[in-house]
Amino acid sequence: MGNPAPSWAHGPMIALDLETTDVDPHRDRVVTASVVAITPRSPGGPPEVDTRTWLADPGVEIPAEATAIHGISTDQARREGRPASEVVAEVAEHLAGVWGPTTPLCAFNAAFDLTMLDAELRRHHGRGLPLGGPVVDPLCLDRHLRPVRGWDDRRTLTAVCAHYGARLDNAHTSAGDAIAAARLAWTLARRHPDEVGLLDPRELHDRQVGWYLEQEHAFAARLERQLEQRIARGGEDEYTARTRDRIVGVRARAGAWPLLTGPARVG
């Protein structure tokens, strides 16, 4: 028998995570960013892991709810952080140097992080984020492999790591979450070689475009069922109007992965 086909997960990969002021990637701001470069060494040996982390002063107040998650307060960001314009430019420059056609970028809910970074670059520098290579999103992969069952089936990083037994250290820090995303990507590639691990990274990227489209349309359909039930109980109101707008937005940007044209959903 010949040697098994190599998996992209055994080659170099990049992992990205942002911690932010809130969950709208077009409106809200980056607080911390981490880019982790993972390079294999000798067979069976641990890879070389290079982690770069930035702390930004976002220029706006960090809500207490966000501080409770990632631990960075407005005072700390102003005291220890660097101007957001410098940080996002450096993150983009660093990505351009390490992310390429044969080196996938792993990010959990990649559409949020990449759209946020793109929006910040446009805000501060008038230019968008170029996609340097293929993207691997363990959240998109997991939703494809295990379709979401309903509103109580939330796919947080913590929950998905627990399901697959992937280690998550220092949760809600950008470095900890980035490394966990890479571990998840590696685990999914190993457990699902035909659907994930043995695909060319560019083909896997293209498939995720289609999977994300299906997932967002399924999410919109759940919203529509919820809307119909609410109208049947109490008629039209401000909430139902907002929900109609949300459904339109979800469907409009469903095909734009991984850089979204409107506010992204999370969870």
Automatic annotation (TrEMBL):
Family annotation (InterPro entries): Ribonucl_H, RNaseH-like_sf, RNaseH_sf
Any GO MF annotation of the entry: exonuclease activity
Keywords: Exonuclease, Hydrolase, Nuclease
Residue intervals of the Exonuclease domain: 12-194
Xref: Gene3D superfamilies: Ribonuclease H-like superfamily/Ribonuclease H
Pfam families: RNase_T
Keyword Hydrolase applies: yes
Protein's UniProt name: Exonuclease domain-containing protein
UniProt organism field: Saccharothrix lopnurensis
